[in-house]
């Protein structure tokens, strides 16, 4: 899930980079995307602030966008694929709802307690 979200951010960043490369602002990107990643919003703030005060040039904003994309690409490369995560705990279905069970919540029982619990369950089934 994280990897998919990160790839969406990268796609939006690439659209922003393409728009900046064409000399267009980021307004069109923000209008087209229903969800705009914060990094693109921040780049847009720099872009719109630049128009009023010449604090950051379009070229600088373009380069910042490229640097941000490289950072995200690096982080995506470091994300583990959720499907191959060995630490992922299995879901156990009970009825219609699915619950996650954490092995840290496991109650430790002595051998006698286990036998007593087994006998209790077995006697209710055998009746």
From TrEMBL:
It comes from the Eukaryota. Residues 80-108 are annotated as: Disordered. Residues 80-102 have a biased composition (Basic and acidic residues). This is BRCT domain-containing DNA repair protein. It comes from Artemisia annua. The lineage of its organism: Eukaryota, Viridiplantae, Streptophyta, Embryophyta, Tracheophyta.
């Amino acid at each position: 899930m994280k990897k998919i979200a990160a790839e969406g951010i990268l796609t939006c960043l690439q659209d922003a980079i393409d728009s900046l490369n064409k000399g267009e602002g980021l307004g069109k990107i923000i209008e087209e995307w229903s969800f705009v990643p914060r990094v693109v919003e921040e780049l847009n703030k720099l872009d719109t602030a630049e128009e009023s005060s010449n604090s950051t040039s379009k070229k600088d904003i373009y380069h910042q966008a490229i640097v941000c994309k490289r950072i995200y690409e690096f982080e995506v490369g470091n994300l583990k694929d959720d499907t191959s995560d060995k630490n992922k705990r299995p879901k156990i279905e009970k009825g219609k709802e699915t619950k996650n069970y954490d092995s840290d919540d496991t109650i430790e029982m002595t051998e006698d307690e286990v036998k007593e619990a087994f006998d209790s369950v077995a006697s209710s089934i055998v009746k």
